[in-house]
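If your schedule permits, I should be very grateful for your opinion on a structural question. I would ask you to consider whether the tokens describe a fold that such a sequence might reasonably adopt. Thank you for your consideration; the sequence and its tokens are set out here.
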Amino acid sequence: MDRIAEIFHRCRRGNRRALVIFTVAGFPSFPACEEALEKAVSAGADIIELGVPFSDPMADGPVIADAGRRAIEAGCTLPGVLELAERFRKRHPETGIILFSYMNVMFHYGLEALCAELQRIGVDGILAVDLPLEEREELAAPCRAHGLHLIALLAPTTPPERAARILESASGFAYFVCVRGVTGVREGVESLLPEELRRIRSLSPVPVVAGFGIGSGRTASAVAAEADGVVVGSAFVGAQESGDPEALVSELARSIRAPKTEC
């Protein structure tokens, strides 16, 4: 059983959902980012998504987009993110690590070289936010060759037939976007979310996590009723600078320990 499978197995044994925390690597600085990640793990995060800053983050709302801009201005690059991942992995051998990136950045580094380096470091997989199904094999092949999960990404607007095709080759876990729009904290969840999550889980051979818009224990609990895991990004990035990331993660971890039966 690989690390990601073991994490979800451990969560099921503990009667809870997996907690996935996204952050922009290098924000607001590498030392501060690493300190926040340490707090996240100590407070209950199971998987860390390391977002690679990109100059044209089309999927990101204002909080994450601004954090990425500031990280780039401070000198954050993909090689620097990989160094951060290596330091983190040495301290946390049981925590999942997913590299979250746009394809342009990875193409510039080289897909084969990147996958080989991620395997050496001990990163578990890649989520390429702008990689369409029709071009998936270009990254899937080096991922397979180096034992990495290529995380499937689905949205509420993904037609059922296309969702089934995406999930045919899903690996590690699938990521379902909760909202029709960019990242950012919302007050509640969309009314059709439970039905959509049940549909995706019925098709998926791997666990399904849900993200975008989740920023509190209340919304995390509602989403956790139908998902195998919950992803929190904008709220965590905001808390890194203006709040208490450890308190936020603790609240989220408590809220998904015993999910409700309905949203």
In short: Strands lie at 18-24, 47-51, 96-101, 125-128, 149-150, 152-154, 174-177, 208-211, 229-232.
